[in-house]
Design brief:
Layout (H helix, E strand, L loop, with lengths): L1 E4 L5 H7 L33 E2 L3 E5 L2 H22 L6 H23 L4 E5 L4 E4 L8 E4 L4 E7 L3 E7 L7 E3 L6 H12 L15 H10 L18 H13 L3 E3 L1 H6 L14 E6 L10 E5 L5 E5 L5 E4 L7 E7 L1
Parallel strand pairs: 10-15
Antiparallel strand pairs: 1-11, 2-3, 3-4, 4-5, 5-6, 7-8, 8-9, 11-14, 12-13, 12-15
Helix pairs in contact: 2-3
């Protein structure tokens, strides 16, 4: 893990901080709604997801179906207006009905001719596929390079969107979850292939083989931080995994520890000589929203947390200490 010292912010940086940042960081911030097996489509019943395994989640885009039925509604409305105005029919009414029919046919044509689109989370290869607008080709990019934001739409309120590379377009991302925070937490949790699978009966058939895969790889540390616990399926699996994570220099904690232990945190009024530094991972990407454990030679322990930019306050170079990233078990 690389460390870089951060310079003091300029006036422009202070000005920018006043504007809300809609960027979603790669972090599991809340517990997502369980992905149940009932949400997966079968030959007999429809469902939101076409496929859910330990390697891929495929969520078909319903834009084509919606477009088709909107067209049908337009045409039905046109015939309804025609029946009402049948006795007192004018030239203007004819143009109005023809315009409605034309719009309806356009919607139906698009719904029948647009290419099949889907959102694909490729956990095995770390790839993210999402649809383009209209007839454009779908995008496939590394998940860690996705630019995801929350966005306000009039009819829907706050939604989750992804911005394609070198583009201004905003593509909606949907799931079975209640809100955009849960949807993004589900995506990040699932795409962190070093963590167990997210909650839900849809993943239960794959939990054991996913555990064996991570065990064979030596239980590598998580790819993304989390503010919620991501436990294994059983206590035995949990204990086995924690042995490896502790060896990597991570300070692993469980829920009971957090409830019973009073943590002493960095205090700007007390620790005035601490330095503002930047934590980067092995790919030079800032480690955002992570909790760090500071252990001093006398046994004293303090905790500090990185911000959205990966910056965190740490003791000065004159003090001897060890630091570990805290991982929630």
């Amino acid at each position: 893990m690389a460390i870089r010292e951060v310079k003091k912010r300029t006036r422009w940086q202070f000005f920018k901080k006043k504007w809300p940042d809609s960027t979603m960081d790669f972090k599991i911030r809340c517990m997502p709604k369980e992905l149940k097996v009932e949400y997966i489509a079968t030959e007999e019943e429809s469902g939101m997801y076409a496929k859910v395994t330990d390697e891929k989640i495929i969520n078909p885009d319903v834009g084509a179906k919606v477009s088709f039925w909107i067209g049908v509604a337009f045409i039905a409305f046109a015939f309804f207006v025609l029946i009402i105005l049948l006795k007192d029919f004018s030239k203007f009414d004819l143009y109005f009905i023809l315009a409605i029919l034309f719009v309806g046919l356009l919607f139906i044509f698009y719904g029948r001719t647009v290419p099949y689109k889907e959102i694909v989370l490729d956990r095995k290869n770390g790839l993210f596929t999402f649809p383009n607008w209209l007839y454009g080709k779908s995008y496939t990019i590394p998940f860690k390079k996705a630019e995801v934001h929350w966005f306000i739409r009039r009819a829907q309120g706050l939604v989750l969107v992804v911005v394609p590379p070198k583009s201004w377009k905003k593509i909606d991302l949907e799931s079975h979850c209640y809100n955009y925070w849960q949807t993004w937490s589900l995506f990040v949790w699932y795409m962190d292939k070093n963590r167990p699978l997210p909650p839900g009966s849809a993943f239960d058939p794959y939990r054991q083989q996913d555990f064996e895969r991570r065990k064979a790889e030596g239980f590598p540390p998580p790819l993304y931080p989390s503010t919620v616990f991501t436990p294994e399926a059983t206590l035995e699996q949990q204990a086995e995994r924690n042995k490896y994570w502790n060896e990597y220099g991570y300070a692993s904690v469980n829920e009971s520890d957090l409830q019973n232990q009073i943590w002493e945190w960095y205090n700007s009024k007390i620790h005035k000589d601490w330095k503002y530094i930047l934590f980067l991972d092995n790919s030079d990407k800032p480690i955002t929203g992570a909790t760090f454990q500071i252990v001093f030679p006398d046994g004293k322990i303090l905790y500090t947390k990185s911000d959205k930019k990966g910056r965190v306050y740490m003791p000065p170079d004159t003090e001897k200490y060890e630091h570990h990233m805290v991982i929630r078990k």
